[in-house]
């Protein structure tokens, strides 16, 4: 397990580099990321490639015992290149080219930019092929940040037409699959299909879904170009990319197929403000939402079933959210342990020093701009020391008993036609994830095509485009004794984003033992209710945004609507299939309903759990250790087992690891002895 940092030597005088390197080593830092935005320094004019400064920086770090991860510098094409070859620029939906002046202003499908990419990446890779301190590479930086996955330039229009030609037998096949007779949208040729540029009303949902697929695959193919060049130079390097949190436009599963290592960039206090609904609490402004961060940890761990890295970890206050609160005392250490508990093999803080110029001057580093330690420095030093003492057995692979199914195609299809302003695929999925994590259950977030035979339970919140193959796989899982929980809006459409000829859940109808008779949506502020009845347990529980009226065949009702037009109609139902059980939830459940459904699935599956954890507290089992992380400002007492990291009395924004099985662990809120988990 390593702790690292992102460093920009080109921002600082050379006489400072050795001091920085020595201080990094003294802090317990093992690995340093360099050069992701350095093209203009590496090549100030065409052909004048200057590696001397980067050679010196790499050597200085190596002398201090630090490994280096280099980055291909293509996220920031320099001004001379933009002026010389302006066709490399992306275009906004209205066709306006993206101007020079920030980053990510290039097009994945630009032949000119691919040519320039081959040139600069191959030169860098060849130059460092025999440098032993360079252990790996990051391709580019944060593909798609600033809404740059989907470009609408003429190069993309041409590439889209070619992509469709490869995907469909003929343009008649496309017209039939999409249903382009609607609004007289039939296409006479593949070349006639334009990107979804501005139009008076919404675009055809099939076009929007296919363009989302095309744009993502364009980034996947561009990333593959980097990977192939790097592996050709040195096949012992690992090749990685740094993904982002709660990020919809890029299929991380597909990109990861070409990578050795998956990494992502974690900024908890920003995420609760700019990519999650609702007003964050003060605790969340200080430390973030453990389930928002945790879901991304588990997604990126699940993309290639291996330990992942956090390539950028928030080091303090940051510049880009709406507001910039200081993290809670100890939060930067908490985030490192939270990542490790979810399976991270390395955590790199972004960045070493606060920058004195440019757009990120208000982004903290582990050290201030004058070189003195900032608040995150002490946390990073402590986390590095604690993690260095752990054994290989303590940090073995995460063994998750539950799979949460996630597919970008479903996300894109629901985003293209949400049918409710408040419906969010990702927020809906996180409702179920949160219910699992409140019980201390470790979760793999995986694609629906993943083999499921190693899991005790599977949760599928919205298999919107489910087909017969997915239905067959899930049926085999349940018949073999697996427990399955399926959420609303599943099996609604075919892969082209047309409604199935049969009622939802389409191919899943036989498995679930029901059909969806009607559906309705409401503003998020409107709370609806169901009556849940399972044996002697009868309660009224809430739901929001989306609700379905179910017509049961083989299934038996677990909950019925309590309100208005839908009163008495089934909302949740259970169907026994073979040796297992499937539950279908036709509403977006409130927290208590989601917890109730998850509890029963886990109990039938025999999955070990805690009691429901206090707000902000999460438990993870990895190897021989159980981590307890506290994202709240309340103190808690952990009972059971030997404390290996930290203390069993958890303060605000604190973490510990204990050597005890999950089922023997208890967490008590110190201020209120009645609240236990």
Biggest β-sheet description: 11 strands, mixed
The radius of gyration is 26 Å
Q: Beta fraction of the residues? A: 15-25%
- Mean pLDDT value: 95
Architecture of the largest domain, CATH level 2? Answer: Alpha-Beta Barrel
CATH-derived topology of the largest domain: TIM Barrel
In percent, how helical is the residue content? 25-40%
Instruction: List the uncertain runs.
Output: 672-677
C-alpha geometry: globular
Count of alpha/pi helices: 19
Number of strands: 26
Helix/strand-derived category reads alpha/beta
CATH superfamily of the largest domain: Glycosidases
Oligomer: single chain
Distance between the termini: 29 Å
CATH class of the largest domain: Alpha Beta
Number of domains: 3
Brief summary:
By secondary structure, the chain is an alpha/beta fold. The protein folds into three domains: 2-84 and 109-140 and 238-388, Glycosidases (TIM Barrel), CATH 3.20.20; 402-605, Class I glutamine amidotransferase (GATase) domain (Rossmann fold); 617-669, Immunoglobulin-like.
